[in-house]
Design brief:
alpha/beta, 9 strands
Length: 307
Amino acid sequence: MNLQVDYLEQGRAQAVAADAAVTLPRAEDAIDETAHRFGDGLIGVISHGQAYNPSRINASKIGVVLLNAGLTRHIGPYRAYAELARRLSREGYPVLRFDQSGLGDSALPDQADADHRSHEIDAAMALLAQHTGAERFVLCGLCSGADDAFHVAAADHRVAGAILLDGLAYPTQGFWLRHALPRLLNPAKVIAYLRSRRNAGPSLADFRDFPAKADAARMLADMVARDTRLLFVFTGGAYTYFNHRSQLTACLGRAARSSQVSLEYWREYDHTFYLRKHREMLFARISHWMASSWGQPSGAPPENAST
């Protein structure tokens, strides 16, 4: 859906003041949604929690903010964010999905600085609080969005939880054994590796924003100490740096084994959850995690087995 752009194209953009809400036609699943222009030229859509149903009141005052996955617009890969937002809305949680500056419908900032992502997420949380009464927040991101979520969750005590899809982790000795040994037995892969060493392309560090491993371990321990909940979901798309469930504790320390940290490793899934059945599994896992973390009225989906 790109209704906010349609609205702007109709020549009524001047009538929309910053932070103003434009009610969107109801989606097919009857979710109330409003489009907003806020912050420094940012555009986002709030899916409002269905508080009219007494059994689904969001007593925890938790709101959810979905962060751009790489260069993908606020609808997410294969509309995953739009579907997730509406599912969580039906379960009582207000959800904001927005385009960070320079992506999708949002403008480039007049003057960017190193902290512009955190400033934009701060503006997003303020918008969600203003329009829905949310007091604490769950940040959800895929890939670079997960990196942003981790950094902000570590620094902002209003963040109650984070959902990190193919988020940060660091190769360990065990990772390299599992990664390299099968390839050493395949001459074609050995030759391909040696050729790649002569023509090295961009590395993971060129696209991601992982803090130093020691800093990440400290940040995670601090979040656990203040009861921030984290759901790590790794897919086969993270094979270049993650390949076993035990790796999270091996690289981030004992805090990764705490009750505040949940982990799924879905090796057969791809990075963008291309298959609908994989997206449905992801949505169900997130719904169950939200319910188990902050309570939820009736209708919570059953827990899904980890792979």
